[in-house]
Amino acid sequence: MDRTAGQKRTSGAFLYPLIDRFDQRMLDMGDGHQVYVEQSGNPDGVPVVVCHGGPGGGCSPAMRRYFDPEVYRIVLFDQRGCGLSRPHASVEANTTAHLIADMERIRETLKIDRWMCFGGSWGATLALLYAQAHPDRVLHLVLRGVFLAQQSELDWFYGGGVARFFPDLWAQFTDLIPAGEHEDLIAAYHERLFSGNYAVEARFGRAWAGWENALAAVDPAWPMGEAPADYARAFSRLENHYFVHKCFISEGQILRNRGRIEHIGADIVQGRQDMICPPLSAWRLAQGWDRAHLKLVQASGHALSEPRITEALVEATNRLRPVLRAAL
User: Which of 17, 111, 138, 200 has its CA 20 to 30 A from that of 226?
Assistant: First the structure.
């Protein structure tokens, strides 16, 4: 793709045109949750499942645009409690094990033998954990902004690490909480996000989501904006619920179990200036994994929508087209 000197290009310059779905459905998981699933692209193409971030972020139509629609059968789903899945903002029967089981249920329902897993941030976490649970079902991994669900990563973002770079924004995030509770802000926000008072939950949900959104992109030309109250409440409740429970995995589990997936190829796209999920986690994941290729993207942060991140991801999915076709 050509570049125009001195002219900024948005992520849309690298994406495929928006396409419509050829299938959408709600899957009843049998425990009170209904999960939204959609398909687009080529019904006979290379299957790819997109794991969105958060937890609680939900999918968006733009996520279909990272794949050649003539080649890929694109499966998007909203994880439990968010997006179009129901019940909205629910944390009951909502754990990492439930999400992995949901992915298997989706794969079996759609009669897919093997698929590529594509995910960023928490979506990268979920893709890795799914692959470790079902390595025979994964063709390839495309990961962005790696989060390994380790305590050091939570301490960085909610314990004052990144606050050294953003003291003004950190003050906005912490000033809502009494000083005596600052030692554990995840727990302090948990109390308010699950207060039972919608107005309180929405207020603190916006603050929780706002802290993350403010740090997502390096270039202010692509601001993330303020989330609507319903979205912010669901996103923040779900994310906080998972973080309070350490994402329902043991410390260091993903790296410890990497041997289960080292036969699978992986493309890892990581913003070098990612302030939410610093590059150290992606680096540690890739080291010694012969089939993993780590691309550190200059002048880029965490957001999927940042142009250089988008360009690298689309380059990866394009390059993989013949490889994955041959693997099926």
Answer: 17
Q: Which of helix, strand or coil describes residue 24?
A: strand
Q: Give the active site residues.
A: 121, 274, 302
Listed as ranges, residues in the chain with pLDDT below 50 are 1-6, 222-224
pLDDT for position 227? 73
CA-to-CA distance for 67 and 154, rounded, in angstroms? 31
| Distance spanning both ends of the chain, measured CA to CA | 29
CATH no. of 11-149+248-327:
3.40.50.1820
Q: Which two structure tokens, joined as six digits, stand for 175? A: 């000033």
CA atoms of 41 and 74, how far apart (whole Å): 6
What pLDDT does residue 92 have?
98
Nearest to 285 by CA among 244, 252, 240: 252
CB atoms within 10 A of CB 203: 18
Classify residue 113 by burial, with Cβ atoms within 10 Å: 0-12, 13-18, 19+.
Answer: exposed
Residue 120 near residue 53, CB atoms below 8 Å: yes
pLDDT for res 226: 67
Q: What is the largest CA-CA distance in the chain?
A: 59
H or E stretch at 51: strand 46-51
Indicate the residue type of 152: S
Per-domain residue ranges for the chain? 11-149+248-327, 151-247
CB of 273 within 8 A of CB of 280?
no
The DSSP 8-state label assigned to residue 271 in this structure reads E
